[in-house]
Amino acid sequence: METIDSIGKVGPTQVALKMLAAPINPSDLNMIEGVYGIKAKLPAVPGNEGVALVKSVGKNVTSLKEGDWVIPHGGGFGTWREEVLVEGDDVDKIPNDIPAAYAAVLGVNPSTAYRLLRDFGNLQPGDYVIQNAANSMVGLAVVQLANLMGLKTINIVRSDRPDVYTELRLLDNLGGMLNVPSDYVGTHAFRDIIADLDRPVRLALNAVGGRSAEDMARVLQHGGTMVTYGGMSKRPVELSQEILNYKQLDMRGFWMTEWVNRSSREDRLVMLEDLAGWVKQEQLSLFLELHDFDDFHYALERSLLPNRRRKVVLNMDYPDRMAQHDELAKDKEENYSMFDVDPLMH
Q1: Segment 8-22, tens digit of pLDDT
Q2: What predicted TM-score, i.e. pTM, was given to this entire model?
Q3: Which of 36, 102, 114, 229 is the catalytic position?
Q4: Residues 6+ away with beta carbon under 8 Å from 277
Q5: How far apart are CA 129 and CA 133, in angstroms?
Q6: Residue 36 is a catalytic residue
């Protein structure tokens, strides 16, 4: 593990950071496997997302100060470490009055939801948005942000999940207008519900692909927009000629990393301040579980469990348990410098 001392003195344009929290995302594992959209320069530290405390800044850094919280604004940052020295331009300031675990994950999933609703479909209050993977972290954020923007959501959850009805109840509680299992979407009953809406569906958000994408495309209004931002089914987006030609749909793709790379710092800060503000006001809830960095193997196992709702976040600011142990020993006036060993083990 590198430390600030081992990686050198802070340069004029650099900042020294202490990592506070970092999630384990599928994209992190894909990057390790070499199948992600960007490749890390080896040797590399894994982890694309996280939040850090600014410990010191170079003399030419004016946008940050000691004590600020920051997040990476690009992929391949290497957040699974305790300390790091980086260029000040490689991080964005984030409000530090929300839990660190929330701050660590705002830059990807909630930000993706924010951009999908802000940047596509020219949405107005009262408009309808349909999405698959609605119980994913992006999907849950879409439901909550749509409510804040005056939008109505139609949410689809994979019907073969063992907990599908639990997930649908969660979407109900978060304010989803219509929440259905995927095998209901192609039925006459579903089409009747859509036909009875007070206005057509303007935007579809696709994170699955395959048949699910086509089902949503059939629901969209003429000239509607479908944005693909994921491919959980690992199947291509295939639409019939009649849907593409007759409906004149606008088919788009979105990748948060690409948006970050071409956006201005001001646009990123406005987005992060909006999201952090909603978190602080308890209008945006994220579903997380926190594990200390020194228990990484267990945290990784948890992140790989199927049908998992909570995102695993590594607590990088974990306690020094040996120091706690020594302090307890002092309080109890016991000598823990030597441990008894079972003689049978020799």
Answers
A1: 689 999 999 999 999
A2: 0.89
A3: 36
A4: 95
A5: 13
A6: yes
